[in-house]
Amino acid sequence: MRACIAAAAALLLAAGAVAAPAVTPRTQPAPPPAPYAGVYQPHGVDEIGLWREDDEHERALGQSALVIRDPALNGYVRGVLCRAVGQERCGAVRIYLVRVPYFNASMSPNGTMQVNSGLLLRARSDAELAAVLGHEFGHFEKRHTLQQFKAQRSGSALLSWMQVLAGMASTPQAAGGFSSLQLSVLGGFARFGRDQEREADLVGLGYLNGSTLRPGAASRIWRNLILEQEASATARGLSKPDFRRVAFFASHPPEAERADYLQALAAPDGETRDEGAERYAAAMSPWMPAFLDDQIKLNDFGASDYLITHLAEAGWTAPLWRARGDLFRARGAPRDLMDAADFYAKAVALDPQLAEAQRGLGLSLVKTAHPAEGAVALRRYLALKPDAGDAAMIGTVLSSIGEAR
Predict the structure, then answer these.
(1) What is d(CA 82, CA 76) in angstroms, rounded to the nearest whole number?
(2) Are 294 and 330 in contact (CB under 8 A)?
(3) 94 in helix, strand or coil?
(4) Which residues are within 8 A (CB) of 94 and not within 5 positions of it... i.e. 6 or more apart?
(5) Contact 265, 236 (CB under 8 A)
(6) What is the rounded CA–CA span in Å between residue 380 and residue 63?
(7) What DSSP line would sit under 197-240, residue for residue?
(8) How far is Cα 122 from Cα 31, in angstroms, rounded to an integer?
């Protein structure tokens, strides 16, 4: 029985090696993509089924309240994708921007690309956003979802049969052999995913190398993500993550390895190309306060403070001071409330019409035993925003201040 299980495992691993050879990080620039062959159509029962399932998901996504429907923002993100992969390839994609505060984007086999607001918050330029979108298009063009579906189905089928055989044998040796096989299959799935990620990185950098955008931005966005995760760990009193260790069940390469090989994949003459930082900042400006609000609500102080101060490297603005005030006020320690009042005051000094900064300033001053000054700021808030949803609550605070005086 153990011999049967071992033989089956060997066959599975051999088949996996043929279907998905390991992708080793390159040390030379990624080659440009092959000429565009046109929008592909699904072939075979598996791919047709996946497309139909994704069509149903897309219909539900299109009706979701999380979708950002701002035409200007959608047009901008599409433009960045088209600059990265080319107008012909770009025509195969339908982009959905969603209000989800985590760093991620994904692409389905039917051409649906989902871009999280958390990615838009963390990117700093056209080139950085293009690096991530090009990576996702690489998954799409290489049909990775179909490959993964077939690999998982084959592995699951093998495990099912081996479980039956091990149960029939009813020996400790057979049970141990099945456990070893199960671990090997699950680890193989993870390796398969890491290899697909590396291949998508290679394809995505090929797009950028052939574009007018700066390909070195791909490495930079991952290095910034490492710094954010370190800031998050420090604020929680935790040791810093090991960004070079490959976990057995990890579905993605380690961040430090990824940042290094992405730098190697970038064309050496690409640093003189367009970055698009000012265009990016202008496009995101109307939505940045909302994206920061969503980030602060994640209750990850270190990551949020890192993102706010990183955004402020180009200069502190009233919305950024207000966001930092919100962050410190949400944590709520006595010293935090004093810092928050200072941050809100800086926001108000830059923009006295920023109602949310007046509100935060007033509440922080009230909490730090400055009720009179707090009342002034809260009244300004209500004057600027008389139809505010929390007007009744603010009125109650003002009444309590009056009673205390």
Answers:
(1) 10
(2) no
(3) strand
(4) 58, 111, 112, 113
(5) no
(6) 38
(7) HHHHHHHHHHHHHTSSB-TTHHHHHHHHHHHHHHHHHHHTT-PP
(8) 27
Phi, psi for residue 10 in degrees, rounded to 5? -60, -40
> For the chain, what are the domain ranges?
2-270, 287-404
Q: Which two tokens stand for residue 343?
A: 């941050």
Which residues, 6 or more positions from 381, have their beta carbon under 8 angstroms from its beta carbon? 355, 356, 358, 359, 362, 388, 394
CA distance 137 to 326: 36
Q: Which of 228, 226, 262 is nearest to 245 (CA)?
A: 226
- Tokens representing 195 are 């290899």
One of 1.25.40.10, 3.40.50.300, 1.20.1440.230, 3.30.2110.10 is the CATH number of 287-404, namely: 1.25.40.10
Of the chain, the end-to-end C-alpha distance in Å amounts to 85
Quickly count: other Cβ atoms within 10 Å of residue 332's Cβ. Answer: 10
Residue with tokens 């505010």: 388
Q: What is the residue type of 297?
A: K
User: How far is Cα 65 from Cα 99, in angstroms, rounded to an integer?
Assistant: 9
In the numeric block, the tokens 């760990």 are attached to 233
Instruction: Choose among 242, 222, 241, 221: nearest CA to 231.
Output: 241
Please answer whether residues 105 and 95 qualify as being in contact, where contact means their C-beta atoms are separated by less than 8 angstroms: no
Q: Look at the block and give the residue holding tokens 């509100």.
A: 359
Per-residue pLDDT in tens (0 to 9) along the chain, 405 residues: 445 444 444 444 444 443 444 555 556 899 988 888 876 777 888 788 888 888 899 999 999 999 999 999 999 999 999 999 999 999 999 999 999 999 999 998 889 999 999 999 999 999 999 999 999 999 888 887 766 766 666 656 555 656 665 566 667 665 566 566 566 656 555 666 788 889 989 999 999 999 999 999 999 999 999 999 999 999 999 988 888 887 766 767 888 999 999 999 999 999 999 999 999 999 999 999 999 999 999 999 999 999 999 999 989 999 999 999 999 999 988 899 999 999 999 999 999 999 999 999 999 999 999 999 999 999 999 999 999 999 999 999 999 887 444
